[in-house]
Amino acid sequence: MGHSWSEEAWRFVLVVLAGTLLGLLVGHVAAVVLVAVIGYVVRHLYYIHRMQRWLDDPYLGKMPAHFGLWGSLYARIHRLLEAHRRREAQLQQQLEQFRRTAAALPDAVVSLGPAREILWVNEKARSMLGLRIPGDYGRPLANLFRAPALRQYLERGDYKKVLEITAPGREQRQLSVRAVPYGDGQLLVIFQDITERYRLERIRRDFVANVSHELRTPLTVISGFVENLRANPDICPEAWRRPLKLIDEQSGRMRQIVGDLLLLARLEGGEAQLREAPVDVARLLEGAAEEGRVLADGNVKFQVRVESARQIRGDAGLLRSAVVNLVSNAVHHTPAGGQISLHWVDEPGAGCLIVEDTGEGISHQHIPRLTERFYRVDAGRSRERGGTGLGLAIVKHILQVHDARLEILSEPGEGSQFICRFPEARLVDPGQRQATDESRIADHSA
Ligand code: ADP
User: Which of 241, 245, 355, 385 has the fewest CB atoms in 10 Å of its CB?
Assistant: First the structure.
């Protein structure tokens, strides 16, 4: 380019020189130089015009042949266009491949624009969601879907969770929804048919609940008789005393397991009726610490720190049961002389209820599995002290129905921290509570 440009500059100097010489010969230097420069400019204007016409459709029109500066410009533009054409073909191919892959997916895929309007859907989305294409393109997905939970999910913008909903117009079909943000405010929404998994889960849940329920009556009868026999030494032979004591203990344990399983089934199936009200966390922690003190029999020190005045909107009974569970675990795993702290503190966007101990701690490999039913680090020891292995599973589910999460931090030999994180939406300022009470009173009087 530099070379052809200097060539062109020389060409202009030559035109001016030739004009000057000719002007000297005819005696009108200025006029002849002016005519030569005008001629030079007109030639370039003509070339610009030709280039403009060619650029209107560079792929169809034949590229004009040129040399010098114009030739080099044409060659460069041509190279750029070729590179662009190759890239376009490549993108087209990739797009085609993506379309074919998305079409072959067993899940419904819907791409949404910034206003959550439908931009594109795959083949499966038409049959699974009943979308009409191209008629539904450009329409907001939530309007076509009449599922308030989906509308909230799309509006809230927290796509870490997977949503489960009933398919539109098909009550028996369950779908899981997962959204993935991409590009400039766009969203890829993936719908998966989980009807079968849902059905199997329900069968499992119902089975456990039914078995537990059926076991409850025989267990109560056995316990009743054993209790009676033990309470009347005159009708109970001496040799039976020890076996009866063991039967009593074991049937008590079974009753505990059955009770825990039934509670879990209720929590899991969403059947637990939450009696929601603002729960005073200071009182909750004091109560749990008191139970812990009795259980620990003076062997460990207790500390309660309440650094937030906020209350939790939830079921006081269930929350109490969760905290007492954590405290009783802490007591069982903290040797004499240790300390157990109960702490309520504000965190950005959450309220944290922490039960911390200076006990034996837990090895890393066990931590992710502790909330599984019947998972115990040392099953023998847990059974010995009457543990069912269901405590943390219950805690997790109680927190879940309160939209809260359980986090476990622990180091062997250095104690454990069980952190229950309640989202902002579950927290109530005491002042706010008063306002709600007042409005309730006002409602009554009206
Ligand atoms: P369990 O009836 O055995 O207490 P949980 O579900 O309550 O059942 O607890 C599961 C396991 O987690 C326990 O068996 C124990 O190994 C471990 N664990 C729970 N809390 C603590 C703690 N504070 N310190 C150490 N280990 C703990």
Answer: 385
Going from the Cα of 351 to the center of ligand 1, the distance in angstroms, rounded, reads 24
The finding on whether 260 has its CB within 6 A of some atom of ligand 1 is: no
Domain residues for the domain of 31 are 2-88
Decide: 396 in ligand 1 pocket, CB within 6 A. no
Q: pLDDT at position 318, please? A: 95
E strands, 163-270, where?
Answer: 163-166, 174-182, 186-193
Q: CA angle, 69 as apex, 63 and 75 as ends, to 5°? A: 35
**Tally of domains within the chain:** 4
Stated length of the chain: 446
User: Has residue 131 been placed in a domain?
Assistant: yes
- Averaged pLDDT for residues 356-375: 94
- d(CA 405, CA 361) in angstroms, rounded, equals 20
**183 in the same domain as 48:** no
Cβ neighbour number for residue 306 with a 10 Å cutoff: 17
Q: Do 400 and 311 fall within a single domain?
A: yes
| Exposed/middle/buried for residue 395 (C-beta within 10 Å: 0-12, 13-18, 19+) | buried
CB atoms under 10 Å from CB of 415, counted, come to: 22
- Average pLDDT (395-401) is 95
> Is any atom of ligand 1 closer than 6 Å to the C-beta of 417?
no
Q: Which amino acid is at 23?
A: G
> Distances in Å between the alpha carbon of 417 and those of 1, 144, 145, 275, 335?
70, 46, 43, 28, 16
CB of 388 within 6 A of ligand 1: the answer is: yes
Q: Which amino acid is at 146?
A: R
70 is a domain residue? yes
Question: How does pLDDT run across 236-262, given as a tens digit for each residue?
Answer: 788 888 889 999 988 988 999 999 999
Residue with CA nearest ligand 1 atom 3: 389
Q: Which residues partner with 420 through β-bridges?
A: 353, 406
The ligand 1 atom nearest the CA atom of 325: 7
Containing 112, the helix (H) or strand (E) segment is strand 108-112
- CA–centroid distance, 170 to ligand 1, in Å, is 43
Share of residues in the chain with pLDDT > 70 (%)? 94
With a 6 Å cutoff on the Cβ, whether 387 touches ligand 1 is yes
What is the DSSP code string of 359-414?
Answer: S----GGGGGGTTSTT--SSHHHHHHTT--S-HHHHHHHHHHHTT-EEEEEEETTT
Q: CB count, 10 Å around CB of 268?
A: 18
Residue 292, ligand 1, Cβ within 6 A: no
Please give the Cα distance from 406 to 296 (Å, whole number): 24
Prediction pTM value: 0.67
